[in-house]
């Protein structure tokens, strides 16, 4: 009998998405396996956030099928949402709350027990170095401090799949290192990470598989080593080549000319 490989954690089949008449995702097909760290990259407007919103159940008017742990997302949205931790791009926190109040609110949305929420929130706030601000209103927080609370809110329920949309924006260099380490430790524990970013150096280091989307289509899929063999020496170069922007220096010159 032929040996069966592990079942994918995420399967996307024939995904198409239109906003009005404009198609922004074009026939996306994908299998993602447990423990993989997927770096999802692409130019502004390529369709990264839209893909992520489909995966997290925030968008449901798409064509095609998405399965999480073998279950059809459309028919099991509530159950599947508890398996996923999502840190959106540009999220709004309820910043009149303190981190402890906010995390308590989020934990309850995931049906966590009160004592468990508080214990985890305390540990995570300490790990992210903001325990001293645990009971301070977040409208006094810097961008990076808010981003840390958002990251904590995405993992507090210990989800199997963690979807991060540009999670490093506003974080200082130490916090970036910490999040990179965290991603690799979580994947070693078998968590699946789906990570959208424009920070090529970080994606290059943390991802074991990189997906490049351009104009709604996946145009490259492989490890950094594999992409390097076919398309260029650095992820920046690979990105530029496959998205048709190798001449970006001219754009900067054009802008300068326009100012003259
Ligand atoms: N709610 C919406 N209504 C109409 N069009 C939308 C909507 N959200 C996104 N779009 C369009 O869909 C396309 C894909 O957007 P998306 O936000 O998925 O891109 P992205 O790859 O995440 O971009 P970025 O890197 O800038 O965050 C863009 O052209 C965008 O203008």
Secondary-structure map with pairings?
Elements: E1 10-19, E2 22-32, E3 37-41, H1 48-55, E4 63-68, E5 71-72, H2 77-81, E6 84-87, H3 99-109, H4 114-127, H5 143-155, E7 161-165, H6 173-188, E8 192-196, H7 200-206, E9 209-214, E10 217-222, H8 224-231, H9 235-242, H10 248-259
Parallel strand pairs: 3-8, 3-9, 6-7, 7-8
Antiparallel strand pairs: 1-2, 1-4, 4-5, 9-10
Helix pairs in contact: 3-4, 8-9
This protein binds adenosine-5'-triphosphate.
Structure report:
By secondary structure, the protein is of the alpha/beta class. It has one domain: P-loop containing nucleotide triphosphate hydrolases (Rossmann fold, 3-Layer(aba) Sandwich), CATH 3.40.50. It is built from 10 helices and 10 strands. It has helices spanning 48-55, 77-81, 99-109, 114-127, 143-155, 173-188, 200-206, 224-231, 235-242, 248-259, and strands at 10-19, 22-32, 37-41, 63-68, 71-72, 84-87, 161-165, 192-196, 209-214, 217-222. It has a 6-stranded mixed sheet, sandwiched between helices. Strand 1 and strand 2 form a beta hairpin. Helix 3 crosses helix 4 (114-127) and helix 8 crosses helix 9. The protein is globular, with a radius of gyration of 19 Å. It starts with 9 loop residues before the first strand and ends with a helix. Bound molecules: adenosine-5'-triphosphate. Adenosine-5'-triphosphate is lined by residues 19, 24, 42, 44-50, 89. The site of adenosine-5'-triphosphate has 11 residues, from helix 1. This is ABC transporter ATP-binding protein. Keywords: ATP-binding, Nucleotide-binding, Transport. It comes from Arcticibacter tournemirensis. One of its GO terms (molecular function) is ATP binding. Residues 10-240 form the ABC transporter domain.
